Amino acid sequence: MNRSAALFALAGMLAMPVLAEEASPPWSMADAYYDADEMAEARHHVLSHHGDTRQFYVMADRLEWQSSDEGDALVWDGDAWYGGDVNKLWIKSEGEYSLETDELDDAEVQALWSHAISPYFDLQGGVRYDLEPKGRTHAVLGIQGLAPYWFEVDAAAFLSSEGDLTARIETEYEFRLTQRLILQPRMEAELSAQDIPELETGSGLTSLNAGLRLRYEIIREFAPYIGVEWQDHFGGTADYLDAAGEDTGRTVFVAGVRAWF
Length: 261
Fold this sequence. Notes:
Blueprint: H1 3-15, H2 36-48, E1 55-68, E2 71-83, E3 87-98, E4 103-116, E5 121-132, E6 137-147, E7 151-160, E8 165-172, E9 175-176, E10 181-192, E11 204-216, E12 222-233, H3 235-243, E13 249-260
Antiparallel strand pairs: 1-2, 1-13, 2-3, 3-4, 4-5, 5-6, 6-7, 7-8, 8-10, 9-10, 10-11, 11-12, 12-13
Helix pairs in contact: 1-2
């Protein structure tokens, strides 16, 4: 590779920021002075050594035991991704296993393609499959990122193979009480565009979970936590639960770990 070409490419990158909407990066002007193929190789070399690398990340955001008057359950919520700064493959999974009935109450897995649309937000699309209940498949379209004031947001709409349209919104915030002790408020809301009798789901706001978790980072990659969460159902969903003799709302104590690598 021509050393001057590589230096010219690097100087152009440092001299002017690259905007995503620009059709032609500013350092492409060097093609007027150097061979275009040589410059393309030089730019690829520079980018590969200055951030354009592929990485892999796995996180168990919630791996916890929940206890309430109705019984105990094990809950998981985690994801993994592979890719670069702009494009990633995301795998997400969450679910709940009842220790009272020894049955899987809820479980799902998502495979999503994630594309950065701004420095702080990714647009995501793909497929979700429900292991429980009913084993449905959904098309997924959502957005994930960091909102102003450092709120983490994950919102998605789901169109099932039965034609049902639902949505989920999750948001979290972190108060650093010390360098290792962190208080995390978290809220999750689920909505449905129509009644889904076979899933005992009514239209509108179907459920809302709001909680506080206090964790201690023994190391950054491993943090046990305790907390409390309020869980409630609304509208037609609450009516279905009432008819089945189940409580529509409850308060649960949680204890678990948050880990990543």
